[in-house]
Amino acid sequence: MTNAITKAEINGGAVRVIFDDGRETAYHFLWLRDNCPRGLHPQTRERVFDLLSVGDDVAPIRIAADANALSVWWDGEDAPSVFSAEWLRANAYDGQSLSERRILPTLWGAKDLPAPPRFSFAAVKNGAALPWLLALRDYGLTIIDEAPPRTDAVREAAHLIAPLRRTNFGEEFEVRSKPDPNNVAYTALDLQAHTDLPNREMPPGVQFLHCLANGATGGESVFADGFRIAAEMRETDAAAFALLCDTPLPFRFHDGECDLRFYAPTIALDRHGDFFQIRHHLALTAPLDIDFAKTPAVYRALRAFAALARDSRFALDLRLAPGEIAVFNNRRILHGRRAFDPSSGARHLQGCYVDWDETLSRIRVLERGE
Ligand SMILES: [Fe+2]
């Protein structure tokens, strides 16, 4: 249901609009001129209006409104800018409207999410991808089960979102113990909770891990909500939280082929102060070369974060079974693995990545069809 306009008036350099539910909001003159629908290309819907073609003091000579639309006339222009009430409401930028449009993640600890949301491979392939993607957006962790035991199944699932994000590990990567590993993941060692590829300018947004075999002793997967851990830290240790938000740490991965480095803070917030992304990987944290005087405090904060990631309140143990694909937000969910005994049986996961903006895009496109 859309909200109708009950009143519109010029007020202090802006057009003030009141909707029938009582919401009052205002739109600056230049903002309205910049967003005039006539300034959009009819097919691409991209803006063709030149922002510099008007002065920054552009102002309407007249406005008129009815329930469904606001019309604004500009000096020297024959046709008015006509904005639908629906569009104005959807794009209102007062604090309350912005806050209503925020989609906040559902933070979880191990007790809150004993079993991650689960969807069958056949269902997500056959038109029911939206519930899965919404769960992925909100919880950051989902399981697709009953996947066929094929090495292209993980790619098929990922393609429901977008083409694979290729990295220095290729398009798909095989997680099993290898004789000449270039990564701790490719050993049988304990793998502490981490986010993948923090050493990249933009770490992959979504990780898929398809369990093809898990017959070895040990090798349980561990997942923890990095946003929940950050929230805990913000509550209980505000100084450490601030340091992890404000201190870019050096991350590095290097092997025979590459030497990829990037500085970024452990916790990144968005423009509203909500959690945006986590980068945490002790194995890929390069020797700290931050401000000398800050180094002990940063170590203390980093250790506190790492300790929370191992805390049973937050770390969810999950033994992946063949046919299960763990799909998670790699910029939020920490993942790890208990050590396993490679002589006791086969353990083989196949992984790949897609990007997070592609995931949100897929959700929006699927929602159009609702
Ligand atoms: Fe990993």
In short:
Helices cover 24% and strands 29% of the residues. It is α+β, with helices and mostly antiparallel strands.
Tell me the Rg in angstroms: 25 Å
**Helix coverage percent:** 10-25%
Terminus-to-terminus distance: 14 Å
Structural class: alpha+beta
Hetero groups bound? fe (ii) ion
Strand order of the largest sheet: 7-8-19-11-22-9
Number of helices: 10
Low-confidence runs of at least 5 consecutive residues: none
How many strands, which pairing sense, and closed or not: the largest β-sheet? 6 strands, mixed
How much beta, percentage-wise?
Answer: 25-35%
Arithmetic mean of pLDDT: 95
Q: What is the total tally of β strands? A: 22
Shape: elongated
3D architecture notes:
It contains ten helices and 22 strands. With 370 residues, it is α+β, with helices and mostly antiparallel strands. The strands form seven sheets. The protein has a six-stranded mixed sheet with strand order 7-8-19-11-22-9. The protein has a four-stranded antiparallel sheet with strand order 10-20-13-18. Strands 1-2-3 form a three-stranded antiparallel sheet. Helix 5 crosses helix 10 (356-368) and helix 7 (226-236) crosses helix 8 (238-246). It starts with a strand and ends with a helix. Fe (ii) ion binds at residues 185, 194, 196, 335.
